[in-house]
Amino acid sequence: MAQDVRGVIAPGKNEPVRIETVVVPDPGPGEAVVQVQACGVCHTDLHYKEGGISDDFPFLLGHEAAGIVESVGEGVQDIVPGDFVVLNWRAVCGQCRACLRGRPWYCFNTHNARQKMTLTDGTELSPALGIGAFAEKTLVAAGQCTKVDPAVSPAVAGLLGCGVMAGLGAAINTGNVGRGDSVAVIGCGGVGDAAIAGSRLAGAAKIIAVDIDDRKLTTAEKLGATHTVNSRETDPVEAIRELTGGFGADVVIEAVGRPDTYEQAFYARDLAGTVVLVGVPTPEMKLDLPLLDVFGRGGALKSSWYGDCLPSRDFPMLIDLHLQGRLDLGAFVSETIGLDEVEAAFERMRHGDVLRSVVVL
Ligand code: APR
Ligand code: ZN
Ligand code: ZN
């Protein structure tokens, strides 16, 4: 029996979000219905609302979520009703070229639920990143659910579903930060701060936080930054070189998504270092670099989507580390809010007042 639940809908481009009744069908083959307990507010939700991602309005927003599996469809084996799960937007197929070559984080056939959730008049909803979890319940592909230790609070667990995983993974997966490395993180919002926490976890010796906002640098220090640079006042490339004996950082993580910060990241790395690009630029942005510099600097330039994570490998591990007190995921939850406060949370996000607002149901 399909069920009616409350959900946060983006009805049209730049229109305010509103709460509507969402019809959630019973799970079909390979699908699951999850009772959502918490869902973080991410920039991508705002981008959906602004029409920057797709025109398929109306959207059911929310995609950084954790909850309890309520029911599963035919053929679902890895999860059963009652399991506590974190949702992911990258359920890999296991069969494409990327999967077969051992790089499933590049899988091009990611799974979502086949059935659609709708409004009560039958209008089909587009769930944000195939999840749609600003709702009491949501329908997803079973592969989008990863079982984790239920001892963790849902608000904390859900963070791994997107931004915090992107930052942690940029450091530990893409950047392969190792013991003794020097790391510079440019941009210390939720993603950059997670990259800082990931670098500390990986044993980095020096972690240099760069931002234009002193408030952000204070938080970055709490999460593990050993040095801070306000790049409004100080040339960050010079400062990073100075702090690394003139060499540049072994790993530079860019978590802003602008041409000037991409360029800083390019020049702030050690000649044999790695640049990890996490910040998402807009289509018109361009970088103009002397080819001699591109040629003359070795190392690697990598981009990182979703922290190159494998949810089934990384989510349980990171939650275990949090429960052991070795990774403070709780520091990323700035506030918990209700479903009706998403629009206000977008406003606070725009002003840089929060790392994460998390809707708790
Ligand atoms: N130099 C340094 N830091 C900057 C600059 C700049 N020129 N401009 C902005 N920042 C800082 C902001 O002060 C803020 O602390 O970058 C940070 C961006 O943080 P958020 O807006 O909270 O964004 P976040 O969620 O961390 O995502 C960062 O990663 O995954 C991508 O799409 C995401 O592109 C976005 C980026
Ligand atoms: Zn695949
Ligand atoms: Zn997100």
TrEMBL record:
InterPro entries: ADH-like_C, ADH-like_N, ADH_Zn_CS, ER, GroES-like_sf, MycoS_dep_FDH, NAD(P)-bd_dom_sf. It comes from the Bacteria. Residues 12-361 form the Enoyl reductase (ER) domain. Keywords: Metal-binding, Oxidoreductase, Zinc. Its cofactor is Zn(2+). The keyword Zinc applies. The keyword Heme does not apply. Pfam families: ADH_N (PF08240), ADH_zinc_N (PF00107). NCBIfam families: mycoS_dep_FDH. Belongs to the zinc-containing alcohol dehydrogenase family. This is S-(Hydroxymethyl)mycothiol dehydrogenase.
